[in-house]
Amino acid sequence: MKEYLLLFRGGDGRMAISSPEEQQAHMQKWMVWMGNLAQEGKLVGAQPLNGTGKQVSGPKKIISDGPFMEGKEMVGGYLICKANSYDAALEISKDCPILEFEDGKVEVREIQELKM
Prior knowledge:
By secondary structure, this protein is an alpha+beta fold. Helices cover 24% and strands 34% of the residues.
């Protein structure tokens, strides 16, 4: 099996989930989705990301605040999964709870093996 990185973008619709009950129900969907992947031996790891950060740029290694982009482009978290093919990884991504929101996106990238 190959490993794939799923990057979660957007999901600003989460702000519409205002009650604690709605927030809990949405979070439960994430737990079920990731729990199923873990039971199938496909989950390598996953974490949400803070909305703040810094970036280091160029040969002078300039540090600046960031990331600065529209909310729909912000990476909110990631998941690394195992799948037999790129198409299988895409199928896994289709069940991601972030896709419940109009601006929710999952970017799927194959992780290349580093040969040393």
